[in-house]
Amino acid sequence: MNAGIVARRIFRQFLRDKRSVALMILAPILVLTLLWLVLDTDERAVEIAVIEAPESVYERLASGGMEVRALPESEAQEALNEAEIDALLRWDENRPLLMLEGSDPTNHSAIRTAIQQAMGVNLRDVVNVQYWHGSEDMNIFHYTGPVLVGFFIFFFVFIVGGVSFLRERTGGTLERVLTTPIHRYELVGGYLLGFGIFTVIQSLIIVLFSIYLLDMYMAGSLWRVIFITVLLALTALSLGTLLSAYAKNEFQMFQFIPLVIVPQVFFSGLFPIEGLAGWIQAIGKFMPLTYGAEALRGIMLRNEHLGELQWQVFMLLAFFVLFTLLNVKVLKRYRRL
Amino acid sequence: MIELSRVTHTFGKKTVIEDVDLSVRKGEVFGLLGPSGSGKTTLVRIMTGMIEPSEGTVWLREQQMPKRVLMKRFGYMAQEHALYQELTAKENLDFFASFYLRKKKKERIDYCLQLTKLTEDKDRIVSTFSGGMKRRLSLAIALVHDPEILILDEPTVGLDPVLRHEIWEEFHRLKNEGTTIFVTTHVMDEAEKCDRLAMLRDGRMIASGSPSEWKEELHVESIEDVFLHYGRRKV
C-alpha cells in the first residue's frame, strides 16, 4: 500500500527532526504550564482605601480577603488617580460611596461582591448555593483549560504539518514522488497516517499532563478527550497541508497564522460571544476550533457523552474530509492524473 | 518508445513549447540540446505526464500519456535534487523503490548504490552529502526499478569528469541491454555520445539528426559549433 510507504517515511523523517518533535509536544506543554502559573490563582487580592469608615466595616473588609488601607481623603484620591488602589470607600452623608478605579474590568465584580459581604449582605446567608457542573474552587484556568488544550494542539499540528508538506513542494520531492505510480489520494492519505500517529501520541501526552500535573478540571473520560483532540489535530493537519499549497516558503506559511489561527481563538469560546450579534456569532460556525473547543469543554467540564456531542464531532469530521479532498484536488497542479 | 506529436504548451499567455514533434526509438540514447530557458525542462515534464500539454499528444510505449500504469515504465531524474535531506542515502532509495519493487528491492538497492559508488556512504544522512553525491543518488533512484525508459534532466551537472565518464559508460551499457535513454544536456562532449540529437530554442525544435550528420551538414568540427550556429541564428 503506497500510503503506508509514505507514512513510514514521514515517521522516519520526523524522528530525525528533534526540533519538530519538541515543537509539537514540548511547546504546548510549556505554554500551558505558563498559563497555569498565570491563571490558576484565587481571586486577586484587591486593594482598597477606606476613609472614615466605622470600625466594624473596616474589620469585615479586612477579613474578606481584601487589602484595606485607611487613608486620609487627599492621599486616597491621589492613590486612586495613580491606580495604586483598586477602589476607595468613603462616607457621603452617612451613605457609603464606592469609587472604583475602573480601568481593569476584571476585578469590578470581585470588589462589588467583597463589599456586599463586608456590608453584611452575603448571598450565602440568604440563598443556598449549589453547583450543578464544576465546583466552587473552579477558576478561569479550569474554564479556559479545555479550549487551550484544543487550541495548542491545533496550532502546533497546523504549523508542523503545513511546513513539512511545504518543504516537499519547494524541495522538489513532491513532484518527484508524483512521477511514481502513486495515486494522489495515497500521498495525502500517507501524510495523514504518518502524522496521525504522532498526533495521537502528542494528544495523549498533552492531555495527561494537563489533567494530572496541572490539575485541570476533568469531569469526563480520558478516551473521549483524546478522541476529540485527535480529530481536531487531523483537521489542523489537513488544513495546514492544504494551505501550504498557497505559500511559496516558510515565511508565507507563517503569514497564515494571523489570518487562519488567531481569529479562531476569538471565536472558540475563550472570550464570551453569546452577547454578540447573530451574524458575528455565525463567523465562529465556520471555524473547526469552535467545535473542538465546545466538545472538549463539554467533556471536561460537564461530562458530556459523544452522543450529546454528535454535532461537534460531525462538523469536525466534515472539515477534515473537506480539507483532505481539496488537498487531493490541489495536487492536480503537480500531476493531472 | 517516446513519441510527441504536435505538442504545444502555454503557461497563461506565454507559449513555452510550440508545435514539437519528436520520436525516440527503442534502445537509443537521445539528447535534447538547447540554451537555458529554451523549454527543455517543460518538455521533460510533459513526457513524464506531470504536465498535460495544451495541445498535441504524447505516447510512451505506444500508449497515450498521461496514464498511471505508464509511470512504472520510466525512471526520472529531475534537475533539482529532490531528496529527503533528513534521511540516509539508503532510506531515500528504499522509499522510492518501495513504489515499484517487492522481492527484488534489496538487491536492486545494493546494485544501484554500487553503480553510483555510494555503497560506503549509504548510511549517511543526505544533508551531509556533496552536490556530486546528491546527483549520483538521484540517478540511483531513477535506475532503481530497472526501467525500460530513462528520462534524465541534465543528469551530470556538477559531476567531475571521471564520474561523468563512468556514468556515460553505464548509459551505454544500459542502452546495449535495450534501455531507451532520453537526456537533456548542454555539455557538448556529452552530446557527441548520443545516437541522435535534437535542438530546442524558444520552445521550438529547430534541428535534429545524429552528431555526424549535423557536423557534415554544417561543415563544422564539433557539436559546440553546431550549438553556436543554431543558438545564434534567429528563426
From TrEMBL, chain A:
InterPro entries the UniProt entry points to: ABC-2_transporter_component, ABC2_TM, ABC2_TM_bact-type
Any Gene Ontology CC annotation: plasma membrane
Single GO term (MF): ABC-type transporter activity
Spans through the membrane: 21-39, 140-166, 187-213, 225-247, 259-280, 309-328
Any Pfam family matching the protein: ABC2_membrane_3
Membrane topology: Multi-pass membrane protein
Keyword Cell membrane among UniProt keywords: yes
Compartment list: Cell membrane
Location of the ABC transmembrane type-2 domain: 108-334
Keywords, ordered alphabetically: Cell membrane, Membrane, Transmembrane, Transmembrane helix, Transport
PROSITE patterns, per database record: ABC_TM2
UniProt similarity note: Belongs to the ABC-2 integral membrane protein family.
Protein name: ABC-2 type transport system permease protein
Organism: Salimicrobium halophilum
Record lineage: Bacteria, Bacillati, Bacillota, Bacilli, Bacillales
TrEMBL record, chain B:
Domain ABC transporter: 2-227
SMART domains noted in UniProt: AAA
UniProtKB keywords: ATP-binding, Nucleotide-binding
GO MF term list: ATP binding; ATP hydrolysis activity
CDD domains for the chain: ABC_DR_subfamily_A
Identification of the protein by name: ABC-2 type transport system ATP-binding protein
Source species of the chain: Salimicrobium halophilum
